[in-house]
Amino acid sequence: MMNMQEYLKNRSAFPHDELDKFAGKYVAWSPDGTRILASADDLVKLSALVDATGYDSAEIVMEPIPLPDELILGGGLSE
Fold it and tell me: Least crowded by CB within 10 Å, which of 40, 52, 70, 79?
């Protein structure tokens, strides 16, 4: 079972220069957030890769890594 506090702590400490190598792809994180298990161009492929590693893709955090010039919108409050 994933410890979300540990995951978030480790994920936020992941080196940005290493993460930049995955720009434009989706990545799957290890349950503790210390490493990337797999990457792919889409979530279907990524899910299959994760399952092949022996992890359950339903229990792994997967996220897109934006390209350097992409702006991520969201999280703002509207009134």
Answer: 79
Whether residue 27 contacts residue 62, with contact meaning beta carbons closer than 8 Å, is answered with yes
Q: What is the pTM of this model?
A: 0.81
Please report, rounded to a whole number, the percentage of residues in the chain having pLDDT higher than 90.
75
Mapped onto helix, strand or coil, the DSSP state of residue 68 is: coil
Amino acid at 66: P
Residues 6+ apart with CB under 8 A from 20: 68
Confidence at 73, pLDDT banded by 50, 70, 90: low
Residue found by looking up tokens 């079972």 in the block: 1
39: β partners: 27
Show the beta-strand stretches assigned E in 1-79: 26-29, 36-40, 62-64
